[in-house]
Amino acid sequence: MRKKLKTTPEERAAYRMPPPNEDAAAYNWELKSLRKPDPKSLDKRDPDAGESIFRAPQETPKTMARYGHDAQFICPKYLQIMLDSSSAVRQAAANATKARYSKAAMAELQATIMRVFEQEILPDIKKNVAAIGPTLAQFYAARLAHIKKFGAE
To answer: How far apart are CA 18 and CA 20, in angstroms?
Structure first.
């Protein structure tokens, strides 16, 4: 359960996220804590309403049984490290603040985040996966050899 911040209207920051993420500060501003609004939630301010924004939908109960319900399409901590280290993202966020969080400034911040993702984060992911490619190949070959010898578990 999230720790609620007790603030008065005059103590609140100039910009806050909408529910259920309006108390992101209570989670030390970690991306992994962000949730999608749950349309079924009766209490729109319920801090635990909705699933993680990073949840990767799984199509079959079989995959859920094997891998669990918490599959994520990207590691939020890695994404946050990469975005936090981007001078372009920091500058776009500063520009949004100067523009008092206007729709145009927020759209530019989003566009900057997407550009950094395409130009910096995806290449880093590809580089890291290429470096572990041999181990991944060994894993899949060994797993199939094990299944052929001992059967599926």
So the answer is: 6
